[in-house]
């Protein structure tokens, strides 16, 4: 298992060096699409985001707050109540920022996502309370 994790991390690291993705931690990478403004988000803040989650290979959306009938998602950041990688990714953002987060499969623990799937989240921070 450790070798697979290292191989996957090397793949994403190689990919990120050739693009604008920056590593946040092992297995989590961020690309800023639109900068935000204001103070950084802090642990314990309640934030509201629009988010689209996709499997990277093959590309396939599995959830979006912008789909019909969906609403922006509000959660307390930094306390482990969301999918692995979201806390760290969102803590690196500001209000108004739009970023892509890529999360390697070994961080996945969600049962509706296929095993060994790398995930990409397009997140826009709408509000910080």
Secondary structure elements and their pairing?
Elements: H1 2-17, E1 22-25, E2 28-34, E3 37-40, E4 46-55, E5 60-64, E6 73-76, H2 86-91, E7 94-95, E8 98-103, E9 119-128
In round numbers, the mean pLDDT is 81
Helix count equals 2
Helix- and strand-based class?
alpha+beta
Proportion of beta-strand residues:
35-45%
- CATH architecture term: Roll
Biggest pleated-sheet summary: 7 strands, antiparallel
Overall form? globular
Low-confidence stretches: 1-18
Q: Which fold name is given in CATH as the topology?
A: Chitinase A, domain 3
Compute the gyration radius: what is it? Answer: 14 Å
Number of strands: 9
SSE run = HEEEEEEHEEE
Give the end-to-end Cα distance, rounded to a whole number of Å.
Answer: 40 Å
Per CATH, the class reads: Alpha Beta
Oligomerization: single chain
- Quickly count the domains: 1
Helix content bin: 10-25%
Describe the protein in words.
Helix content is 17%, strand content 40%. It is α+β, with helices and mostly antiparallel strands. It has one domain: Chitinase A, domain 3 (Roll), CATH 3.10.50. The strands form two sheets. Strands 1, 2, 4, 5, 6, 8 and 9 form a seven-stranded antiparallel beta sheet that branches. The N and C termini lie far apart (40 Å).
């Amino acid at each position: 298992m450790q070798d697979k994790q290292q191989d996957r991390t090397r793949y994403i690291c190689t990919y990120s060096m050739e693009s604008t993705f920056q590593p946040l931690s092992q297995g989590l990478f961020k690309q800023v699409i639109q900068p935000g403004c204001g103070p950084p988000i802090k642990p314990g803040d309640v934030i509201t985001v629009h988010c689209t989650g996709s499997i990277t290979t093959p590309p396939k959306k599995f959830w979006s707050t912008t789909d019909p009938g969906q609403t922006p998602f509000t959660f307390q950041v930094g306390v482990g109540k969301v999918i692995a990688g979201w806390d760290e990714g969102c803590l690196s953002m500001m209000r108004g920022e739009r970023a892509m987060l890529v999360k390697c499969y070994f961080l996945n623990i969600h049962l509706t996502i296929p095993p060994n799937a790398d995930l990409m989240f397009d997140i826009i921070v709408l509000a910080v309370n």
